[in-house]
Amino acid sequence: MTIGGGLPSWQIDMTEEYMKRMKNLVEISKLVTQSQDFFKIKDIIVSKMLDVVHPAKACVNIFYNDDFNYAYLVCSNTLKYIPTVFEGVDRPEGAKIDFDLYPDYIREAVEKKKIIYVRDVFLDEAASKERDLAQNEGYCGRAVFPFIIEEKVVGFMTAFTTEGESISDEDMNFIASVASLMALSIEITRKNESVNKLVNKLRQGVTAINEATRKLYVDKNIDTYLKDLTKQAVEITDSEEAIIILDKNEKHARIVNCYNKNECRSNLFLMLDTISENHKDGDFSNDVDMVLENGSKINSYIYHRLMDADSNLGYIICANATKYTRDDVNILSILSKQITVGTQLYEYNQNEVRHRVLQNELSVLNKQQKLMMNDANMVCNGNRQLYCYHQPAKVVGGDFYDAVRVNDDKVIYIVADVMGHGIVSNYMVALIKGAFKVLCRQFEKPSDIMNNLNKMLFEEFDKMEVFCTGIVASLDTKENTLTVSNAGHYSPVIIQRDGTVAKYVNCKKGIPIGVIEDGEYKDNVINIKDYPMICMFTDGILEIKNKDKEEFGQERFEKLLCENYKYSPEFIIEKIKEEFYAFSGKKEYSDDIMMVMLKDNNV
Fold first, then answer.
1. What is the pLDDT of residue 340?
2. Model pLDDT for residues 380-401, shown as the tens digit of each residue
3. Which UniProt keywords apply (predicted)?
4. Local structure of 350: helix, strand or coil
5. 360 and 349 in contact (C-beta within 8 Å)?
6. Who's near 602: CB < 8 A, 6+ residues apart?
7. If you write DSSP's letter for every residue of 154-209 in order, what string do you get?
8. On the chain, which terminus has fewer CB atoms closer than 10 Å, C or N?
9. For 203-224, b where at least 16 C-beta lie within 10 A, e where not — what string?
10. Burial of 249 per CB tally in 10 Å (0-12, 13-18, 19+)
11. Which residues pair with 157 in a beta bridge?
12. Higher pLDDT, residue 137 or 349
C-alpha cells in the first residue's frame, strides 16, 4: 500500500524508525560526552536504547580494578526477578556477583571480546546454568555486548528477548554502538575519579602541612614536625612506611624521623645508598622485589630529595604502596619543599630575636612560594624560549608561574594571580600548582585544564573567599601555535616583528577561577610565526605607583617591551628593573611583580 502516491507505508515506518534511532543515539552520545559520572546516566542510556530496539529488557555489569572474579550488577531497572536474587543491587557500586556463576557464553564473550547472541537459552548448552533464572525472569534469548576500552573489557551489557522475539541485525548494530558509548562513559568516570583522588590527596596534604608548620612555629619542636609530615607522606602516597632523612651542616650528622603503619621500626634508612645513586630529584619504582641487609622486603618505593637551590639537604622516602605514579612524585615534591622551608624556619627562629618573628615568617613564606614555583624557565626548541621574572612582594602575594613539558613539541604553562596575600594565597597557590601538574597529564587543551581547575578547586576558593585570575597556554613548536585559555586575566602583550603591539589578536576572557562553579572557558589559538615575543604578566606591574600616586600602567609597559624585544631576556629584565626604579623610586613593592616572556631567540 502506498500513501498519496509516495513511499509505501512500510518504508515510511522504517524511515521513521531509523530517524528515531539516530535521534536517540545522538542524545546518548551527548549524555556521555557531557557527564563525568557513568552511574548518573546509565539508567537513562538503557531506557533510550530500549525505546528504539525490540528487546524490552537489559542489564549492565562492570568489573572493578581489572578483577574478573566478580561482575557487579549496576543497572537492572527493567528486570523483575533477577534483582531479588542478588544482594546489594541498591548499593552505589552494585551487587557483587561471582563471575563463575554466569553461563559459559557470557564468560566467553568477555574473554574473547566479542558479541554473542543465544537465541534460546533452553536449547543451547552454553546457557544451561541460567535456565531457572530465565524461567523466573521470563526471557528466552540473551545477547552479550562487552564494554571494551583500549583492548580491555571493563564490563558488559546483556539484552533479553521473550519467546517469539528476536534481535535483528539492525538492533544488534544499534545496541553495539550504545555499548561502545557506555564503555567510553565508564572510562571517563574512572579518569575523573582518578584526578579527583589526586587533588583530594593534594588538598589533604597541604592542609596537614600548614597545620604542622603552624605547630612548629608555636612549639619549636622539630621532632614532632617531622613525625607529623612523615605520617602525612605515608597517607598521601598510600604507602606502608616513610622516612625523612635531613642532613645537618655537620658532615654525616643527620636528623631522622620515620613512620610505619604496622608500628614497626622503619628499614628505609638502608635504602639511602641505592637512592643516592639516582641523579633525579624525585623518582619511583614498582615491582622491585628488593631485600635489604636486615632481611626486610621492599616491593615498591618512591623518593624526593630535600633541596635548597642546588643543595641537597636530605631525602623523603616512602615504600610498599600497591603502585606509585608520576603524580605521586609531584605531590611528594610539594611535601619535600614544605619540609625544607619548615626546617629552615625552625633553625632561623632558633637564632632570631622574638620581636622580629612575624617579619621572619613572611620572609620564609616568600621563600616557600619561590620554592613551589621552581625554575620553570626553559628552551622550548631551537627558536623559542620561556623566561619568567618574579619579584615577590614584601607581604607574600599570590602570583605564580609553572611550565610542564608534555612532549618534544608541546609545553603547557600557567600564569596566575590569587587575589589575596599571606598564608591564604600561599595555600591556594599550592593547590593550584599541584592540580595543574596533574591535569597537564590528563588533558591537552588549555580550556579543559582551566575548566577542571575551576570545578575541582571551587569549594576551596569559596571557603577561603578568594578567587584567581590566570592564563593557561599550550605552546606547539611544531605547528607554531599558542593556544590560550583566559580566566579573567590581562591579555598577553604580543609584539610584532616591526616592534609594534598586535592589538586585535583574539584572546577572549572567561570569568576568574573560583567565582562560579560551572564557569566555562574557551580556547584561543594564536599563530605565533610573526610574533617574536609574547609577554604575560600580573597586575603588580601596572599598579606600581610614583610619588604622585600615578600608576605605571599598560601603555608604559607596552612601550618598554617594544623598545627592547630584540634583546636577551636577561637584558630586558634588567631594563625593566631600571625603569620601575626610575618611575617609583623604590626597589620593593606591595604586590608581586611577575612577567613570563615567550621569546623567539632568532630575533
1. 80
2. 676 788 999 988 775 556 788 9
3. Hydrolase
4. helix
5. yes
6. 383, 532
7. EEEEEEEE-TT----HHHHHHHHHHHHHHHHHHHHHHHHHHHHHHHHHHHHHHHHH
8. N
9. bebbebbbebbeebbeeeebee
10. exposed
11. 60, 145
12. 137
**Polymer length of the chain:** 603
Q: If you write DSSP's letter for every residue of 513-550 in order, what string do you get?
A: BTS-TT-----EEEE-TT-SEEEEE-HHHHT-B-TT--
Q: How far apart are CA 118 and CA 167, in angstroms?
A: 10
Between CA 561 and CA 541 the distance in angstroms is 13
* DSSP string over 545-567: B-TT--B-HHHHHHHHHHHHTTS
- Closest by CA to 595, choosing from 561, 563, 564, 566, is 561
Spatial distance between the Cα atoms of 215 and 445, rounded to a whole number of angstroms? 41
Backbone φ and ψ for 560, nearest 5 degrees, come out as -65, -45
DSSP alpha helix (H) spans, 352-421: 357-373
The Cα–Cα gap between 204 and 185 comes to 28
Instruction: Say how far apart CA 267 and CA 293 lie, in whole Å.
Output: 9
- Chain-centroid distance, C-alpha 401: 17
Q: Tell me the C-alpha distance between 513 and 467, whole Å.
A: 6
The identity of residue 106, as a single letter, is I
Domains of the chain: 9-190 (3.30.450.40), 220-351 (3.30.450.40), 374-603 (3.60.40.10)
Q: Are 573 and 599 in contact (CB under 8 A)?
A: no
Q: Which of 196, 191, 158 is nearest to 176 (CA)?
A: 158
Q: How far apart are CA 488 and CA 518, in angstroms?
A: 15
Match 550504545 to its residue by C-alpha cell.
178
Bridge partners of residue 106, in order along the sequence: none
Task: Give the whole-angstrom CA distance, residue 141 versus residue 187.
Answer: 29
Do residues 236 and 216 make contact, with C-beta atoms less than 8 angstroms apart? no
Per-residue pLDDT of 160-197, as tens digits, reads 999 988 999 889 999 999 999 999 999 888 887 777 77
pTM: 0.53
Beta strands in 222-333 (DSSP E): 241-247, 254-260, 282-285, 290-291, 297-298, 301-308, 311-319
Collapsing DSSP to helix, strand or coil, 470 comes out as strand
201-206 LR contacts (CB < 8 Å, sep 24+): 201/236, 201/331, 202/236, 202/331, 202/334, 202/430, 202/431, 202/434, 202/435, 202/438, 203/431, 203/460, 204/235, 204/236, 205/232, 205/236, 205/331, 205/334, 205/335, 206/334, 206/427, 206/430, 206/431, 206/434
**Banded pLDDT at 460 (limits 50, 70, 90):** confident
